[in-house]
Automatic annotation (TrEMBL):
Annotated keywords: DNA-binding, Transcription, Transcription regulation
Domain HTH gntR-type, residue spans: 13-83
SMART domains for the chain: FCD (SM00895), HTH_GNTR (SM00345)
PANTHER family reported in the protein's UniProt record: TRANSCRIPTIONAL REGULATOR, GNTR FAMILY (PTHR43537), UXU OPERON TRANSCRIPTIONAL REGULATOR (PTHR43537:SF5)
Name by which UniProt lists this protein: FadR/GntR family transcriptional regulator
Organism: Marinibaculum pumilum
Entries under Pfam families matching the protein: FCD, GntR
Domain of life: Bacteria
Amino acid sequence: MQQEVRFDPVQTHRTFEMVCQQIRAKLASGELRPGDKLPAERLLASQLNVSRSAIREALRSLEVAGVVHMVKGIKGGAFIREGTPDRMSEVIQDLIHLGAISLSDLTEARIALYEGMLPMVCERATDADLAALAANVATLEAAIRAGETAQRPHLAYGFYHLLGECSHNTAIIYLNDSLARILLEYTLLLSPQQRVPASDLLASRRRFLKHLQARNAQKAMEELRRHLRRTHRALWEGR
């Protein structure tokens, strides 16, 4: 059974922010974990010595931030969410739309990430990890032969997701996923003619996979760097 989590009374003119702060503190301390249900709105208001409207405002804020999700019904309430890179992707994408991060910044960040990640991948990737990447490349080849252009961007996201998992580092997996998800959104805006040619993409994937299977991080990075820069040019010209 989940142990009861109690909260301290809040006294401030910015009440809902302090409520959010206390809930985040319970997460940081481990008293609250993903999947846990927060106390009912009335009980939270009583424990924190705040109004129920302040509780509702705090829960809305935490829901937007991706910390909790609200479930309706008799067994509903506010539940702590499982961690996902979705919110991270949204924040970075908003910064790009607002002009705070450029596409060049995004490409440089991805290259820097993979430069640090690929030595780790070459050291830690299992045979099953590499087989999953090979299967993705085989699916890409089949899609290209069948003329299924709509599938390519999603296979690309899947490829980078699998590559991140090869690191066996959760922080890297989440960061990699968030950047790859942003790239997917931009790639979907391009027409098939604006993307990197299918034959070039497939050849690059095969070379990269060959270097990875040989555990040669330097050669793999050289190949990936060339591809990412070519992808950047396609995105920039397609804007």
